[in-house]
Design brief:
Largest sheet: none
Number of strands: 0
Shape: elongated
Helix content: over 70%
């Protein structure tokens, strides 16, 4: 049973965490390159935010929404 858990440890430490070790080593050379995934996710989030705001503006300009005070029964 002890070998089973050591096998799991070897799998995670030597195989699955290897990309993170490479990023950690890359950080010593270039901070921007080491954080490339963060930059990519920030760009995707910014593009999604701009798209969503443009869609909201489009629906607001069409005037499809009922903005009267008594539009909901609970009001």
């Amino acid at each position: 049973m002890k070998d089973f858990f050591y096998g799991i440890q070897d799998l995670f430490v030597d195989v699955l965490f290897a990309p993170f070790d490479a990023l950690r080593a890359l950080e010593l050379e270039s901070w921007f390159s080491a954080n490339i995934f963060s930059w990519i996710f920030m760009i995707i989030g910014f593009v999604a935010f701009v798209y969503w705001m443009l869609e909201l503006k489009k629906y607001n300009d069409n005037g499809e929404e009922d903005k009267s005070i008594s539009s909901h029964s609970f009001l």
